[in-house]
Amino acid sequence: MEEEEEEEEGLNRGAQAQLQGKVLFLTICAAGIGGTFQYGYNISIINAPTTYIQTFINETWLERTGASLESGVILLVWSFVVSVYSLGGLAGALIAGPMAIKLGRKTSLLLNNAFVIIAAVLSGFSRMAKSFEMIMLGRFFTGINAGVSMNIQPMYLGESAPKKVRGAVALTSASFTALGLVLGQVVGIRELLGGEESWPLLLASNVVPGLIQLITLPWLPESPRYLLIDRGDKESCICALQKLRGNGDLSSELEEILAEQAAMKGQRAKSPWELFQNPAVRWQLISIIVLSSAMQLCGNDSMYFYASYVFQEAGIPYDKIQYVIIGTGCCELITAVTCNAIIERAGRRLLILGGYSLMAVWAIVFMVALSQQSRISWMPYLSMACIFAYILSFGIGPAGVTGVLPTEIFDQMSRPAAYMICGSLIWSNLFVVGMAFPFIVEGLGHFCYLPFFTVCVCTALYVGFFLPETKGKTFLEISNEFNKRNFKAQTCEKFWKGPEEIKSTML
């Protein structure tokens, strides 16, 4: 009889674990498809119709004024069409924090789809309306959508996941970005939506992931931490935990959230400026500034700038290059998924350190290969290998782990502001690199990756010396570890003060 009861209890536990896994998996998918997926998708779909949109800009201007635009002016307008996406992303990053605090994580993600719906309407009807300005405006709204989702999605998933898989769950944001990049490259080939007649549909196709999220995400729970710590709603928190974890023992996790709530008692959500003024988060802030800046300044996106040229030099026919470039996106997707599988074993620190160290090595090899490409017959193949290796190295750590860290190293009241700072730096640097890289290539030639090499080396050194490991630790444990470093600096400052200054500090 006892054996039957134990067997039944074991089956119940298995069913609960299975239910928990399903709800968490659905939450990840629903948040990701309308979240960071859009960032990767909208970066890649704009590349395929470049020539057609430039022709459309010229024809529209000719029809309006009776005069054609010069090639330099067309290129300038096109550059603005591409770069306005970054400006929209910056705006999205700045409004993401207040949205997450006032509306909640899940509701913010749902309302964020309004921006992509507006963008799809503007871009989809731009040719019919004979207005290239509608494309610019559509790209700006698309950027806002990406800026909001890149901040809120990892925050939402990191707060909803159990401690033992928190890093892997939050890292799915990078996997969805890579998936969006690949699908955007696939949909953008000439045989699908990348043709001359179908490019408005290609630019408007980003509405589909948004609609999928609007249908699925409302059925899934809000972040339990947000419900208890921000809203003080214990019943809703328990209900959300039960949906995410099943009806098993939630006491230890609830106790941890209550301990964090007690530590946050009497505090309100911080603004970015307050974080800069607060010495208690000094090293956390330095860490996200260094890593967020390095994510764009490391030159990964610039590799795509060289891809077509290098592949053509390697003897790949021009009309086949679009298929080979899909391989670069697949590299990023493969490494993002691999990183998901190993992050809880390898840890965050090792993945970032290894990623930037390998990128520094490949940057040197790439510059050497470019400089010798016209002299040695097999050098184009080495250049091609470097492109894939650089993207793989970026995907193995920096691409995903950077987005996880603000969730882990900041407390509940500081987290939205930290993501605002993180997102603002990512989008600002994306804009700066996009504008500056052609001039870097012109000035440094084959050695254009020297600035990126410097960034990779400096970031690897910072991670190696200053960034603690966060794997398997509670939010309070991580906060305490950073506090030792933050207040150690204050202790050193007091040591160097005179007796009167120490006395006044104690008082």
Automatic annotation (TrEMBL):
Cell compartment(s), UniProt: Membrane
Protein name according to UniProt: Major facilitator superfamily (MFS) profile domain-containing protein
Swiss-Prot/TrEMBL GO biological process terms: D-glucose import; dehydroascorbic acid transport
Keyword terms, alphabetized: Membrane, Transmembrane, Transmembrane helix, Transport
Taxonomic lineage: Eukaryota, Metazoa, Chordata, Craniata, Vertebrata
Alphabetical list of InterPro entries matching this protein: GLUT, MFS_dom, MFS_sugar_transport-like, MFS_trans_sf, Sugar/inositol_transpt, Sugar_transporter_CS
Family to which the UniProt record says this protein belongs: Belongs to the major facilitator superfamily. Sugar transporter (TC 2.A.1.1) family.
Transmembrane segments: 23-41, 73-97, 109-129, 135-156, 168-187, 199-220, 285-309, 321-343, 350-370, 382-405, 417-441, 447-467
Ranges where the Major facilitator superfamily (MFS) profile domain occurs: 28-471
GO CC field: plasma membrane
GO MF annotation list: D-glucose transmembrane transporter activity
Membrane topology: Multi-pass membrane protein
Species this protein is from: Mauremys mutica (yellowpond turtle)
Main location: membrane
Keyword Transmembrane included in the entry's annotation: yes
